[in-house]
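Subject: for your reference before the review

Hello V.,

The reviewers asked for a structural picture of the protein, and I figured it would be easier to keep everything in one thread rather than splitting it across files. Below is the amino acid sequence we used in the manuscript, unchanged from the supplementary table.
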Amino acid sequence: MALHIVLFEPEIPQNTGNIARTCAAIGATLHLVHPLGFNIDEKQVRRAGLDYWKDVKIVEYKSVEEFLAQHKESNLWFFTTKSEIPYTSAILEDECYLIFGKESRGIEESILVDYPHRCIRIPMKDDTRSLNLSNSVAIASYEWERQHNFSNLETKGALHRLSWKKGETG
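And here is what came back from the structure prediction:
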């Protein structure tokens, strides 16, 4: 099983850093599709990802076209506010690519029309334009994990690590 997080032309370094941290926490591969709105070595990206960069597998592509050409047989899921299908209705395969567009415009509509049954959305109020990119990636990533019973993550023994005693609050 493998989860792949794909960012089409991300613009904000702090978002990409936060997403890299999420990828490290769940063992997902981060795919960065150029052009990027920043240099990946920028201090803001590194600061947001803290010391997790060494734990993230990053694959880079020169363009959206290059990514799509290399993954035309892959299980691709496009997150967009233009879809009517909630992400919870999608059956996320063992190996899939969760794709997110740039912060300012999302994924180009010319791409979305080629994948109408692979476009999903995170529901929100009608008067809200969109969620923060790193929040959207976290929601989608943990939905994939939930659908796979968190099999990549440590969930056993969590209660044993709690130091609270009955009746205490912390």
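For the response letter, the relevant points are probably these. The chain has a mean pLDDT of 88. Residues 2-161 form a domain with the Alpha/beta knot fold (CATH 3.40.1280.10).

Happy to draft the paragraph if you're swamped.

O.
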